Amino acid sequence: MYFMTGAGPDLMDAATKGALEAGTPVGRFKISKEAGEWTASNFHPYQPSEVFFSARKHGLVDAAVRSCSSDRTAVVTLPGGIGIPDENFEILALIQLERMGSELPVPFLLMNYDSFYSKILGFLDDCKDWGTLSNGEITSMWKVCDSNSEALAYLAGFYNLPPPSDKARHDNELQTASGTFS
């Protein structure tokens, strides 16, 4: 088992630290910042930074694709900057076109902490009204979660695993500079 991240600061760094504390190997797809480098936790010095988002998106998709039925992967999107919607729409398009998850479905979770993505979700609802998306088209491709416990329960159901215990829910709070998410 390993953990892949976009290697950015804040929530991505908090998720990386959690994976490292759990003893899980961590890889990254980091984008160089022109006016200086973002720093994140304990990455191997041989892992290069990417210049373009296309390389990062390709790597994240490759990491998420399931090679066999025993693989348990997921795409989990946390609140973030402008690159996150770009990656989200790319993954949605790949799922819609059956280029990702066609043989072995990959769970795609949008973590909507404190309604962070409510305006994007509203835009997608407007697309249904305009006829550019069909009813239920997007909801069939991802799961919008408001809490970590909701995401863990969804993943347990997706992979037919026992539901997480209350202790596991407590242990899976996400600590960030902005506060705690659970």
From TrEMBL:
<dbReference type="InterPro" id="IPR031100">
    <property type="entry name" value="LOG_fam"/>
</dbReference>
<dbReference type="Pfam" id="PF03641">
    <property type="entry name" value="Lysine_decarbox"/>
</dbReference>
<protein>
    <submittedName>
        <fullName>Uncharacterized protein</fullName>
    </submittedName>
</protein>
